[in-house]
Amino acid sequence: MAEPDYMDDDCDDLIKPKKLVNPVKTSRNHQDVHRELLMNQKRGLAPQDKPELQKVLEKRKRDQAVRQQMEEEEAHRKQSDLEVELQKRQQRLEQVWLMGRGHRWGRGPGGHREVTVCLTCRWSCSSREMKRNRKTPLNSSR
């Protein structure tokens, strides 16, 4: 392999490039792990030969961290009161839509006509509205 032009010693006024430093190898964490691996190799311990208890404890710790992260995401995703109320109303409207035309009317507690409530959307209506809107009565007994 040919040497580059700037390697000649005859040009002292040129700036010579320096070798770049590898940030991974200079990190303290990497040095500690490398030192530990060398010590384990000298003692004859392979990194895969961990005791069963240590493997189980590490797995539990990982699972707990994942569970905690999921709970934090769920807490951020928690719905406000307005969103909950809007969702209830949407479900109520979907029920009305699925029930078909008109309301299903039933008698309230005690069987009194004045306390009749729409069973589909849980609204209380006046007697006139009930008579006008009644398509399929729930209680046919009089």
TrEMBL record:
Pfam assignment, any one = DUF1151
Record InterPro entries: FAM107
| Basic and acidic residues bias spans | 74-84
Which terms are listed as keywords in the entry? Coiled coil
Does ATP-binding show up as a keyword for this record? no
> Where is the region Disordered?
60-84
Specify the superkingdom.
Answer: Eukaryota
What is the protein name given in its UniProt record?
A: Family with sequence similarity 107 member B
This protein's species is: Paramormyrops kingsleyae
Q: What is the lineage of its organism?
A: Eukaryota, Metazoa, Chordata, Craniata, Vertebrata
